[in-house]
Design brief:
This protein is of the alpha+beta class. The protein is 15% helix and 61% strand.
Length: 99
């Protein structure tokens, strides 16, 4: 019975806890690119551009990050592959690692 309670607690905490993509992510090949994710909010920084974003999902292990800015509107699809966060933007894929 204790195993059943532990399993139910794990399912509940997984559903209600923070996502596995929470944290600060950097592109190891481009030190100016950074994604900071906390729950359903994110901040994307690349060079001198900083955008506030919303994060939705996951839908089949893919999160959607939408960034709306006066200059640029961007939608990124994020997928966690082991310790690497794969970000797809306009058919281009970038790898991010935890900072």
């Amino acid at each position: 019975m204790n195993k059943l309670y532990a399993f139910c607690a794990l399912v509940f905490l997984t559903a209600c806890g923070s996502s596995g993509i929470d944290g600060i992510w950097i592109d190891p090949s481009d030190y100016d690119a950074e994604i900071e994710i906390t729950g359903d909010k994110a901040k994307f920084t690349d060079l001198d551009l900083t955008m506030m974003c919303t994060v939705e999902g996951p839908d089949q292990d893919v999160y959607t990050m939408t960034c709306l800015d006066v200059q640029v509107n961007t939608t990124m699809y994020l997928r966690l592959d082991g310790d690497i966060l794969k970000a797809t933007i306009s058919n281009m894929e970038f790898d991010f690692v935890r900072k």
